[in-house]
Design goal:
The structure is a single chain. The protein has one domain. With about 80 residues, the chain is mainly α. The longest helix has about 35 residues.
């Protein structure tokens, strides 16, 4: 995979950069989901709309957590 001329490092860099951008996207989704939940609790007065937005925020957080976990597993698979 890697030789003395440095060939192969570009492939390694591209693979690691992709998993890092997935992880960053996952953490941003976690923050966005938390923001949705906090904004819904602070701004909405109707319990039905508040519940809907809180559930949507939790769903976004779950998607972010799944993306972070998937990118972490992809990094672990590259090392083995």
């Amino acid at each position: 995979m890697f030789d003395s001329t440095g060939e192969g490092w570009g492939e390694f860099y591209r693979a690691s950069r992709g998993s890092h951008s997935m992880k960053l996207s996952g953490f941003l989704l976690l923050l966005a989901g938390g923001g949705i939940v906090l904004a819904a609790v602070a701004l909405l007065t109707s319990s039905l709309s508040r519940t809907g937005f809180v559930l949507a925020g939790i769903a976004v957080e779950v998607l972010g957590l799944a993306l972070v976990a998937r990118s972490h597993l992809a990094e672990q698979g590259d090392r083995v």
